Amino acid sequence: MMGRRTQENVVAVALLVLFAGIIWLCRDFGPRARMIPQPLAIFGIVLTVIQILWQNLGSTDALRMDMIKVNAPRKAGTEADEGSVSGAKKPNWRREADAYGIVGALIVLFLALGPIPAVFLFTWGYFQLSGYCSWRAGLIYTTVLTAAIYLLFVVALQMQLYHGLLAPLVERLR
Description:
Elements: H1 4-26, H2 37-57, H3 60-63, H4 79-83, H5 93-113, H6 115-130, H7 135-156, H8 167-173
Helix pairs in contact: 1-2, 5-6, 6-7
């Protein structure tokens, strides 16, 4: 029977072979058809090589995990218990409705405004409503994320993005 590290290395090598196969298949594609799979395969190779180096050259203590360890049950009403879904308490209809509302809002933003404004508004709104960070930090994170998405899809991959249902209205206002 193989050891855990050997199994992890076998899986990592299989991923390397898969990514190399994707690159090999892409050589017959046209330049535009290669724009998505080839960069993703190269990125996958880089991440897999980093994973192999990390798991073979790093400390073995950092990789050790007790898969059978079970945490003791928490007392009802504790702060950690109320936020966990894995406890005995199932999410109520209000939390589920909120989750569906968030997904629905993102879909409506995508359809109405297109992906770039939708990502910007949704991400900044999430940071503000969740209280994860201040409005300035949220605005900075949101701007960097939106710029990265724009640079990746519009500039690097030269994709023509959907401008949303409101695009004709915006064009008339110009």
